[in-house]
Amino acid sequence: MKAFAQLFLSLDETNKTNEKVKVLKNYFATVPDTDKMHMLALFTGRRPKRQINATLIRHWAVEASNIPAWLFEESYHVVGDLAETMSLLMPETESSSSKTLTEWIAEINALADKTEAEKKDWLLQSWAMLDSQERFVFNKLLTGSFRIGVSQNLVVKALADVTGIEAPALTHRIMGKWMPENYTFDQLVQVQTASDDISRPYPFFLAYPIQETSERQKSAADVAAALGDAEQWQAEWKWDGIRAQMIKRGGEIFIWSRGEDLATEKFPELHPFLQALPDGTVLDGEILSFRDGKPLPFNVLQTRIGRKNLSKKILTDSPVATIVYDCLEYEGEDIRSRTQAERQSLLEGLQSNSAYPEVFRLSTLIDFNSWEELESIREQSRAMIAEGIMLKRKSATYQVGRRRGDWWKWKIAPLSVDAVMIYAQKGHGRRADLYTDYTFAVWDGDKLVPFAKAYSGLTDAEINKVDYFIKRNTLEKFGPVRTVKPELVFEIGFEGINKSTRHKSGIALRFPRILRWRHDKPKEEADTLESLTAFLEE
Amino acid sequence: MAKPLLEFTDRGIYCEQGRFYIDPWKPVDDAVITHAHADHAYFGHKNYLAHHLSREVMLYRLGDINLQTIGYGETVVKNGVQISLYPAGHVIGSAQIRIEYKGQVWVVSGDYKTEDDGISTPFEPVKCHHFISECTFGMPVYTWKPQVQLFNDINNWWRVNRENGIATIIVGYSLGKAQRILQNLDLDIGKVYTHGVIENTNEALRRNGVLLNPTERITQASVKEEVRKGIILAPPSAVGTPWMRKFGPYSFGYCSGWMALRGAKRRRAADRGFIMSDHADWDGLVSAIDATGCECVYLTHGYTASFTRYLNEIGFNAREVHTLYGGEEEDATITEKEEKEETAELTDRKEMV
């Protein structure tokens, strides 16, 4: 695992993209093939199954560090990363281990049927034989996500350079449900056909926002200047659901979420229509809750996400359907390189032959003749339960990842209120030891009622200033949370609002974030709960 | 119970019997200064007392002040109170201040570091009844590696950059870290170039008789190709400025104790983060406090709350005190303040390449 630990260290030691690619290439060039696949799995979010629960690991780490448990917790809040905290707190060792990444992961997986005492022995011995950098990545394997400041794109770029295979093809080949135990490096670099793994999804094509900041809405004229002739574009509503790729191959069906989670079982309503599709069909669309042919707000869908068992009640209260907007594979052929218009017409053909038009819906194209007209249609987004409008160039191919040029999202301005910060908590990763996670409140009479948490929207410089304020204006500390003197006012933007019985304020927001810091507003002038609930009626 | 010899006031640490303050942050008549950093040596006092080696830097930074300096171990008596200085190992000229009156001994640590850095007079523990200590890095996640290892890393990094034909820029504060780096670089690799702000401090120290390795101030006449073979010592304020960009392509390393954590390192967005601090690490703090044999320790700045709790749990009598000195909580501000000073100087003197 030395090479893997060194990879981590070297990636941390440079801030330049080219250097990072060089480091990654060097790794691929020097480690055994099985290690390459494990590394790829880890860097694309496929971490080994957690064999020891985090509480036990923490507990044993406290023992190994020889400090009080509370100090371990405080340290964790300062460091903001459990794996790193543990490696920093354990005594230095001189020893190091020559086991490869593959061997370590095999050992971790072998823990599955060990007793707690055996697990503990193994863990304490393992810690003792690793130096601090190795220990850090080892702890990451055991506990955490591999968020390391290297995007999958960079890894793919390095791999493309090393193997001579083009990046989009590689991106496709590392999609899906493979694990390093059942996918070899040889298989990865061989020429492949869709039949190799019938479940494998295509990389999603993601739209770029037209509205890059919330400062000012882009007008029809701005859009015209950026995108040119309206004739060349198709427009549809931007639905607020779960982006999904739906596959029918070899008699089997698969539903993939954008996070590459296989979600087939979560949406039984979609099974009949998918089963009825011809083999060799892949669709791209949005899954939403529907009632009486109308989409329901996202929070209705949210009630069933994350549930292990879909009860009858959930299926009745929140039935789903899908709005499909693209076809990526047709009659077994990858058609991503065909134009948007061609794919659209193949999709329409599939849909018109479907016996399930209530579930298999099309994202109907919006009729418009000019950008001005579309701009005024866009005003109806909220009434349509849509987030805005999607623009797709009629000649667009279906590309890989977020690309500027052919797919744009033109979202409507968020709703917003001015709110007072009342609690703060330290962030993680890059934001460790800085207060970056805030809770906001609005007035209910003379009381401030918390209604939303937000983490993003401020610049680094603003975060430093807010952090400085918080550290000097703490009223109380509850573990990692500080009650802050109510003084700072922020404009909080959100996409939607719904009633909630789980929140003190009685409402839940969709995508709350900080739009800006209202230096100009005293706290007395922040909004009220009344003004917030007024949005509910709209 | 008699009144304590030192008390914590809104102007700073005060000795009523001797009528003087230690590192006060508001103007007073008599100020005893632990060291010349801006959060300890404020402008506006009538009389200053500090160590000999702080003299020129303080005059350079604070202008025409009324300054008396003494050596380590020397004593000044004010109204029956004996004041003497002991090395704090933080930066050149930094001192712990020992106060004695009627057999009661108090020591104010100022900022301190327990490892010998090769340029500051090494830290000496002083026996006392009451110890007022900083705890900037008072969390067990902060443990420094021996300096030899640190400078091996820095020198290797410089060597590789030189071989690759890119400039090496190392960033550290102008008083303290800059000189520590300078004295520990391997000068066989190349020359050391300095940003004007650092060179001004170097000059002040040289006037004070400190023997520093040779440096060359970067001026408009400096030749970029030559500078690129050497190493450039720059203050934090230079990061990201056109002054720095002119040396590109370069690799820049940031030296700070905060670099011990990946999060802080990533925030800084340096090419290399070197864990180098002029403060004591966790073990250094605990051993320094232990060595004083004090009855009571007061923690002024840093992770005071948890460090105080920990010390009490392992048998010390520890108290948390609020001051305006820099530390964990103030890191961002101090940085900003120093950077402002330095940027002001930079624009004044137009020392751009």
Please tell me the overall pLDDT of chain B.
89
Poorly predicted runs of chain B: 327-353
Broad shape of chain A: globular
Helix content of chain B: 25-40%
CATH class of the largest domain in chain A: Alpha Beta
CATH architecture of the largest domain in chain B: 4-Layer Sandwich
Written as H for each helix and E for each strand, in order along the chain, the element string of chain B is EEEEEHEEEEEEHEHEHEHEHEHEHEHEH
Largest two-chain interface: A-B, 34 and 26 residues
Distance between the termini of chain A: 57 Å
Straight-line distance between termini of chain B: 63 Å
Give a brief description:
The complex is a heterodimer of chains A (538) and B (353). By secondary structure, chain A is of the alpha+beta class.
Note down, in words, how this protein is organized.
The complex is a heterodimer of chains A (538) and B (353). With 538 residues, chain A is α+β, with helices and mostly antiparallel strands. Helix content of chain A is 36%, strand content 24%. Chain B is of the alpha/beta class and 353 residues long. In chain B, strands 7-8-9-10-11-18-19 form a seven-stranded mixed sheet, with helices on one face. A six-stranded mixed sheet of chain B has the order 1-2-3-4-5-6, with no helix packed on it. Chain B has a six-stranded parallel sheet with strand order 14-13-15-12-16-17. The radius of gyration of chain B is 20 Å and the shape is globular. The chains are: A alpha+beta (538), B alpha/beta (353). Chains A and B meet through helix 5, helix 6 and helix 19 of A and helix 7 and helix 9 of B.
